[in-house]
Amino acid sequence: MNFKNLPFLFLVFISALAWSQNEAANNLIVDGNEAHEEAEYIDAEAQYRKAVSLAPDTSEALHNLGNTNYRIEDYSAASQRFFQTQKNTTSKDEKHAAFHNLGNVYMQQKDYAQAVEAFKNGLRNNPTDEETRYNYALAKELLEKEQQQDQQDEQDQDKKDQDKEDQDKEGDQEKKDEKGDQEDPKDEGEDKDKKEGEDGKPEDDSKEKSEEDKPKNPEKEGEEDEKKQPPPQPKPGQISPEQVKSLLEAMNNQEKGVQEKVNAQKVKGTPVKTKKDW
After folding, report:
1. Domain at 15-89: CATH code
2. Phi/psi class of residue 216: alpha, beta or left (left: φ > 0; alpha: ψ in -120 to 50)?
3. Distance CA 217, CA 5 (A)
4. In Å, how far from its chain's centre is CA 276?
5. N or C: the chain end with fewer CB closer than 10 Å?
6. CB 203 within 8 Å of CB 197
7. What architecture is the 91-171 domain classified under in CATH?
8. Could you report the per-residue pLDDT of 224-238, keeping only the tens digit for each?
9. Ranges of each domain in the chain
10. pTM exceeding the 0.70 threshold for the entire prediction
């Protein structure tokens, strides 16, 4: 046996095996396609999985398996299959289809930001596809609405938080005001004593009133005022009341002296009767 031909024979064997596996994978893909058309998605998924296990790099098997996952609403598995498809193929058409379907998966998951990117990549590989362009525009619109709603929700939540904070502050202030309105009995007694003192009531019975607080006699006040007032000054050519009073007193005294002299003379001229013994 010639051992020099062993490397060549090994390569032929490997090639034949690969061809056989690819052929088997293609047959499985055909079987899976038939089951998929009959809406027998569980059977179709099983056939595609077998095909992928035989030929992992077969983009057709990966893509069709992703379609089946999408039909049974296994969106997580579908997104993985479509992503693998666009990685393993060099065909722009296959890349475009994989990104288009990947965008549809994200739309079902309401992940509009990822959907926008997927459709955008699909258009990069096939800018003329109108369906992809429509889906891209729809995803952008839904994303903008979602962002606006998130912003509005955030503003509403901020407003609720602020209102709650204001209510808490207002409640704290009301409690402080109520506490301030409740007077301390001790303080109230002190305030009462102070008030009585202001009203003129004596705080201590033994304390005497000041001279200023004593009632005044109007008559005495008048007399004191007259004493305090200086005597009226006489006008030129007139006699003052004191002078009149002095003159009257002098006249009275003079008249009295005269009267006493007259009386004395009358006494001397009157004979005194004596009693005789004979």
Report:
1. 1.25.40.10
2. beta
3. 157
4. 141
5. C
6. yes
7. Alpha Horseshoe (1.25)
8. 554 455 555 545 445
9. 15-89, 91-171
10. no
